Backbone:
């Protein structure tokens, strides 16, 4: 019996010592770092950071006697760059693609307001169409350092169309109800 106990004790000691050295996958228990690919953070940012890019805001009603609003807010550079196709993912030093010297030109194509109609979850509202054409000029650089160094630069142009439509509530032709609704929504 002592022979069996001695061998089991030596086997347990060998397992404990063998597991505490080298590249043991769970050596730190629940604190073991987990390798995460670098593009995971980009995907999470796309998913959570820019939630309102595709949503139409609800604005105060249009008031009688005042000029209709115009689309004064062009898309931001960030919205335009997020709407572009992604740069192909390469391998560092083997094949990489970069976009440099980016210039964005924004042109308003459509600025019109539809007559009032019913929108679910909103009620009576007017749809204000704001369509923008964004022309992006950039230099595309393709670079490789292995097996031999190479760098190719090409001027590129890309056209992106962005809709920044929004809704204006419609409360009827009564100026007092228009003023009160605007006051309730904007606090001034």
Residues:
């Amino acid at each position: 019996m002592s022979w069996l106990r001695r061998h089991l004790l030596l086997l347990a000691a060998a397992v404990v010592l063998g597991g505490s050295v080298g590249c043991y996958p769970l050596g730190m228990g629940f604190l073991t770092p987990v390798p995460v690919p670098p593009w995971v953070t980009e995907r999470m940012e796309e998913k959570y950071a820019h939630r309102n890019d595709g949503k139409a805001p609800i604005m105060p009603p249009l008031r009688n006697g005042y000029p209709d609003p115009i689309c004064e807010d062009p898309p931001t550079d960030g919205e335009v760059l997020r709407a572009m196709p992604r740069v192909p993912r390469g391998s560092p030093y083997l094949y990489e693609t970069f976009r440099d010297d980016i210039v964005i030109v924004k042109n308003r194509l459509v600025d019109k307001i539809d007559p009032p109609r019913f929108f679910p979850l909103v009620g009576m509202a007017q749809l204000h169409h704001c369509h923008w054409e964004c022309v992006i000029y950039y230099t595309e650089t393709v670079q490789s350092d292995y097996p031999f160094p190479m760098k190719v630069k090409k001027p590129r142009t890309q056209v992106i169309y962005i809709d920044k439509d929004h809704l204006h509530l419609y409360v009827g032709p009564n100026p007092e109800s228009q003023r009160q609704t605007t006051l309730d929504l904007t606090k001034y």
User: Anything to note?
Assistant: Residues 56-186 form one domain. The longest strand covers residues 123-144. Residues 15 and 22 are 13 Å apart (CA to CA). The longest helix spans residues 2-19.
